[in-house]
Amino acid sequence: MKHVYQFLIAVTLLVAVPASVYAQQQKWQSMEGTSEGLTLVMDNNGLYGFIDEAGKVIIPCQWECAWLFSDGLAMVVNDDNKYGFIDKTGKVVIPYQWIHAYSFSEGMARVRDDSGKWGFIDKTGKVVIPYQWSAVGDFSEGLASAWDDTKKDGFIDKTGTLIIPYTWQEASRFSEGLARVKNDDGKYGYINRTGALVIPCQWEFAWHFSEGLAGVEDDNGKIGFIDKTGKVVIPCTWESALYFSEGLASVMDSNRKTGYIDKTGTLVIPCTWQEAYPFYKGYAIVKDQKGEEHKIDKTGKVVE
Question: What is the pTM assigned to this prediction?
Fold first, then answer.
C-alpha cells in the first residue's frame, strides 16, 4: 500500500496548483492540479472542467471524468464510458471511441480497443502503432514499455519496433536516461537505453530518477536515495519518501509525520505535517493533523 500511496501522490502532483488559483479553492469541491496553464476542477455537482490561473472558467464543468492537459490535449470520458480528447477551447478533437486510454506523452497516447489490446494514436487520433500488446506504458525519452503474451516487459520505439527485449517482470518509464526494472526474483534495479543493467536488481522497490537521485526501499522496508552509479547517498532510514523537486524531497519519519530533506539527507524542514507534497516554483502544499491544507516556502514558513 505504501508503494501505491507514494506513486499516486507523485503522479497527481507533478504540477502543483499556482498560488493565485489555490486561493480560490473554496469555490470548488476539488482542484486536481494544474498543467499547461489550466487547472482541473470539480464543481458541486461532481462534474469536471478547467479554469485558468486567474480563476476564470475556461471550459465549463461537464464531464464526470477528466484529466490534466498534456501536449495540448486533455482526456475526457462521455456518458457511454468512451474515452476521447478535447483541446483548450473544450472542443472534442479526437472523438470518444476507446474503452480505455491515457494522456498524451511525447505526441502519442496509449489506447485500448474492444479486444483489450493496446496501441498508440497521434494527436490527430490516427492509430500509428497498431493494437497488439497486453499492456503498454507512456513514451518517455523516445521509448515506451510494452508487455507481451509471455508476460514480460520490454521497450518499443515510436515505430512500434522492439528495442529492448521482453526480459523483465516489470519496467517503468525512462527518466534521466534510466528505467526501473524488476527481475524474476522480485528485486528492482535500473537499465540504460541500450537495455544494459547498470544498477543491479537488489532493492525491494525503487522509484524513477529525479534531479539525479532515486528513492529505493531496502530489505527492512526503509527508504533512502541512490545516485546514478547505484551508490546509496542518503541512507535508508525513512518510512516513506517522494521524489526530489527543487532540491528537496518529502520524507516520513517513524512517527508518521512528514517534512523535507535536502540532497545531503539533512532534514531542513522538520517532520511536523500529516502530508507534504513536492515543491513547485518555491512553494509546497502540506496538510496538518486536521487535514487542512497550507502553503509553505523552502524555510518551512507557512505563507498561506
Answer: 0.85
